[in-house]
Specification:
CATH topology of the largest domain: Nucleotidyltransferase, domain 5
CATH superfamily of the largest domain: UvrC, RNAse H endonuclease domain
Number of strands: 20
Low-confidence stretches: none
CATH architecture of the largest domain: 2-Layer Sandwich
Oligomer: single chain
Mean pLDDT: 84
Radius of gyration: 29 Å
Number of domains: 5
Distance between the termini: 63 Å
Shape: globular
């Protein structure tokens, strides 16, 4: 039994990180402290002087643990990592838990590529981002590939040259200089990459001067073909620069952050202006999960989460107000950047105006997001009420589970379960099943197996939760749906209903049926078909669930087939057993990536020795 008073007395007077837990052993808050002894004790003193948020949090704390660090800076870094990993309920959180995309330049390759990625790893490549606006990222990449004819393929260039492989279409239409032909000088190719880095760094003026110089030099040498290319680049870049708004008279790199706290809501919005060399290069907004925190607390939390992920940190970051841990934040940012970073909360002048502009934009964005969310929620509520009416339910179905079966001629049969909560896809609750008891293409029997496994497991977990041998958070199937949707007609519904009857479970089951053109047309419920109007929002919702269940099943089926194919190929390589095959597949994800990997890249895989790596490399390159 955890005795809070006893544990408080044992707290050390040292820097570190503390983790507050509820009765389910779930981490609900992560914080850092110069002195764990003083900071953690404050939570359990008189609650009258505490904020509403702290009062609510303390009422749920059943236990805590702590990690001692050597310095406050180490505590801050650990705090960032633990918040990202656990996403505690009472911390300020970047609302989207998805990974934002970056532009990656593979400067570690002989002939680098430029492309979009969602993985930000330390692999000696150069990254720009993150981008929350996918359209802006796409447009930026289009401009780059229009101005600079670099390669977009994943070819092993040296291997292509040795084998004298034919260049692709991009070479013939002059969209790529064709390093695979062996006729491209590495230095001239690298020059293009350096210019792209200048472009993405916001140093377009410097790039324009370089291109203008090359244009004049080419014209002087009477190389009119290249002069025309440089002229087109020069004009395109000038057009881009003209569209960029000059926001600062100082020719420095700045990030300007404005925070707007929503009224009567648990969300706030952070607007970031990325100013490079005095010009607004890009702007992004981020939604935050907040409660009753002060603006300073929100700023501090945002800085930690945002700058733990970004590819570039400028010398100066402008914020609305000073934050409590400003000095340690500056130290952390300076360490990440490699030289001095200043956090400034300007009180007057141009910089103050920039922060106010960012804050105003955050407010406008917040209003727009809230209005869009409200409209979307109203539409979802309407659809659920329509479904309630059609099925004659007592209340709108808040949780719906949809199931589908996928196989090709009975091979690698799989089942999928997708979940919609309050009319919205809840992807963290999706589950997939590899069919174990059915041989061949028998969708009815396969559906029986999937439904039986799902609800038998659910009943067991429910019992374990009641017996307190399992927590609710540990149960993957403990929450039952209000309605079950089956991809198919009366036969599939009958198969699922038979299982529920055997388990003594009473949940409405519907079949999602399609027409001759494989388009969703309606529902089968209690033996009756309900054909829905083509313009009906309910029909669109059902079609969305059916498509999602089918997509999830198909993707799982493809991954199994791909793994089986890759596994069989790897079996031919001497010295590569089951564990090493699994490690290779987990690391590279595809055969194409493995084929072009160098010996050094192969040795980065867990369990792969230099001898193994050489064997794999020779197998794919013989």
């Amino acid at each position: 039994m955890f005795d809070i008073k006893e544990q408080l007395a044992l707290l050390p007077d040292k820097p570190g990180v503390y983790l507050m837990k509820d009765k389910e052993e779930t981490i609900i808050y992560v914080g850092k402290a110069i002195s764990l002894k003083n900071r953690v004790r404050q939570y359990f003193q008189s609650l009258k002087n505490q904020t509403t948020k702290v009062q609510a949090m303390v009422s749920h704390i059943v236990s805590f643990e702590y990690i001692v660090t050597d310095s406050e800076l180490e505590a801050l870094i650990l705090e960032c990592n633990l918040i990202k990993k656990n996403r505690p309920k009472y911390n300020v959180l970047l609302r989207d838990d998805k990974s934002y995309p970056y532009i990656k330049i593979t400067v570690n390759e002989e002939f680098p590529r430029v492309f979009k990625t969602r993985q930000f790893v330390k692999d000696k490549a150069k990254y720009f981002g993150p981008y929350t606006n996918g359209g802006a990222l796409k447009e930026t990449l289009e401009v780059i590939h229009k101005l600079f004819p670099i390669r977009t393929c994943r070819r092993n260039i040296r291997q292509s040259i040795e084998k004298k492989e034919r260049p692709c279409l991009y070479y013939h239409i002059k969209k790529c200089v064709g390093p695979c032909t062996g006729n491209v000088d590495v230095q001239s190719y690298r020059q293009m990459i350096d210019e792209i880095i200048l472009f993405l760094s916001g140093k377009q003026d410097e790039l324009i001067r370089k291109i203008e110089s090359k244009m004049k030099e080419a014209a002087k040498e009477m190389d009119f073909e290249n002069a025309a290319v440089y002229r087109d680049q020069f004009m395109a870049l000038q057009n881009i620069v003209e569209k960029q708004k000059v926001l600062s008279t100082e020719q420095i790199d700045q990030d300007v952050i404005g925070i707007y706290k929503g009224e009567d809501t648990e969300r706030s919005c952070a607007q970031v202006f990325f100013i490079r060399q005095g010009k607004l290069l890009q702007r992004e907004h981020f939604m935050l999960e907040t409660s009753k925190e002060s603006t300073g607390e929100i700023i501090s939390s945002f800085l930690k989460q945002f700058y733990s992920e970004v590819a570039f940190i400028p010398k100066e970051i402008l914020i609305q107000e000073k934050v409590e841990d400003q000095n340690i934040l500056e130290e952390w940012l300076t360490q990440k950047r490699g030289n001095r970073v200043k956090l400034k909360a300007p009180q007057k002048g141009e910089k103050k105006s920039l922060v106010e502009m960012a804050t105003k934009n955050a407010q406008v964005t917040m209003v727009q997001v809230e209005e869009a969310n409200k409209k979307e929620k109203d539409q979802r509520d309407t659809v659920l009420r329509q479904l309630q009416h059609v099925l004659e339910l007592d209340a709108p179905p808040m949780r719906i589970e949809a199931f589908d079966i996928s196989n090709i001629q009975g091979v690698e049969s799989v089942g999928s379960m997708v979940v919609f909560e309050e009319g919205k896809a809840a992807r963290k609750h999706y589950r997939r099943f590899k069919i174990k008891t059915v041989q061949g293409a028998n969708d009815y029997a396969s559906m029986e197996e999937v439904i039986n496994r799902r609800f038998t497991r659910g009943l067991k977990e429910t019992k374990d939760i009641i017996d307190k041998t399992m927590t609710i958070n540990e149960g993957k199937f403990a929450i039952f749906p209000d309605v079950i949707m089956i991809d198919g007609g009366a036969g599939q519904v009958s198969s699922a209903q038979k299982v529920l009857d055997q388990l003594n479970i009473d949940i409405p089951i519907c079949g999602m049926v399609k027409d001759d053109k494989h388009r969703t047309r309606g529902l089968i419920y209690k033996g009756e078909e309900f054909v829905l109007d083509k313009a009906s929002p309910l029909l669109r919702f059902i079609a969305k669930m059916q498509d999602e269940a089918h997509r999830f099943a198909i993707n799982y089926h493809r991954s199994l087939r791909k793994d089986k194919t890759l596994n069989s190929i790897l079996e031919e390589i001497p010295g590569i057993g089951e564990k090493r095959r699994q490690a290779l597949m987990k690391h590279f994800k595809s055969l194409d990536k493995m084929k072009i990997a160098s010996v050094e890249e192969l040795t980065e895989v867990e369990g792969i020795t230099s001898v193994n790596a050489k064997s794999i490399y020779e197998f794919f390159n013989k």
